[in-house]
User: Which sequence fits this backbone?
């Protein structure tokens, strides 16, 4: 699937459909090939029917401000670029309030596929 992008934008934002426990959402996610794992904010995770838990799967996340412990949830389905993945683990972490997106689409979503970002033409494709 081919999505248009503005080569002058600082980030590449794409629509991502998430199916959770009791709801589905379409979020604006930034493509982040430096992130090994995709992530959404806790506000979105709560809307999808997940709860914070001290007993849940947790992992250490390295951010610009240091290392933090974050919760991992498993989505029923994630869809972007017409590609669907089921039982997809994703991290939940509060994003800074000043960002203009709802989550990060990381390398875990793109593995085994060819991601092409063409800044001359202004398109991003995934196949």
Assistant:
């Amino acid at each position: 699937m081919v999505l248009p992008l503005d080569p002058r934008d600082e980030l590449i934002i794409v629509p991502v459909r998430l199916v959770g426990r009791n709801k589905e959402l379409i979020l604006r996610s930034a493509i982040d090939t430096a992130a090994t794992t995709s992530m959404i904010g806790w506000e979105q995770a709560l809307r999808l029917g997940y709860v914070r838990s001290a007993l849940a799967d947790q992992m250490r996340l390295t951010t610009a401000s240091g290392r933090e412990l974050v919760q991992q949830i498993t989505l029923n389905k994630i869809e972007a670029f017409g590609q669907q993945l089921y039982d997809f683990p994703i991290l939940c972490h509060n994003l800074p309030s000043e960002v203009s997106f709802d989550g990060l689409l990381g390398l875990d979503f793109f593995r085994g596929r060819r991601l092409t970002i063409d800044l001359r033409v202004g398109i991003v494709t995934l196949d």
